[in-house]
Predict the 3D structure of the following.
Amino acid sequence: MSIDIAVVPVAGIGTRLLPATKSQPKEMLPVGRKPVVQYVAEELAHSGIRRLLFITGARKTTIENHFDEDSELITHLRDSGREHELAELDFERQDMQYFYTRQRRQLGLGHAVLCAAPLIGDQPFVVALGDSIIGMHAQSDIVGRMLDEFEKARADVVVAFEEVPESDVEKYGIAKPRGPVGDVFELESVVEKPVRGEQPSNLAVAARYVFSPKIFDFLRQTKRGKGNEIQLTDAMHEVLQAGGKGIGLRLKSGEQRFDIGNYQSYFRAFTEFALADDKEGDGLRDYLKELLRET
Ligand code: UTP
């Protein structure tokens, strides 16, 4: 079995990033030189994914445009003697097919994943959140490692986790491991936003999942939870409670998750990516040092 399809939900409204997200998707906000969702697509290509199914919505058409070949732009660059800049569009030609379906009502991440059911059918699949980057240069192979473990363990749910400080456990879905926790561990359950001090671990869900098609049966039955939304965590919990096999993988060092869902983490991500930029990073570092000296 070789899993080469990923569902990328990008239909959320992004209220925490208003007004920037009023008329453009948060997944298209630039982090350094590229929009968030381009890093996601490049990372998935690096792990062998060849088909991307975006769960999209109104106000999100720029995502479709971004992954289309733009012959007008190519002609313009050629005609104006700027062929060297065509390299910036290499991602358009990566070995990937793109598909789009709409989530017509904002009923949460679980509902967004359920919108993929008619197209995914009876096959296992990856879910990668379109607003989260893993690592700096889209070189993480976390999804490839997750797929290996999924197949080895004949799992139903595989989730990537990142260690977070205890003060942050209330913000995330947190792993409840079964037995010892190594780089790969057995997952008993996922607890949504536990009260600090009562968390089963400090490992937070990190935006990448692999599911067997069983998840759809549970999503169909999942009642609306927090925020009146259908929560993916609730359906995962149900799959595991019903005897489904769960595996957790820890992100390695260098695979930090950049969550472009709020201004604090967006500003931090942009700064880190800009500082790592080949051409502009050093100059920016000097500028920031100067700026900080003045304040
Ligand atoms: P968030 O949980 O950050 O929700 O989405 P949101 O609605 O985008 O943002 P806020 O809370 O209003 O600020 C995590 C990922 O799931 C997608 C989002 O597009 C994002 O990539 N999502 C979320 C959907 O596709 N549909 C939804 O109904 C909710």
In short: Residues 9-16, 27, 55, 103, 106-109, 111-112, 129-131, 261 surround uridine 5'-triphosphate (CB under 6 Å). The chain has one domain: 5-140+148-155+207-217+232-241+252-294. The first helix runs from residue 36 to 46. Residues 186 and 247 are 5 Å apart (CA to CA).
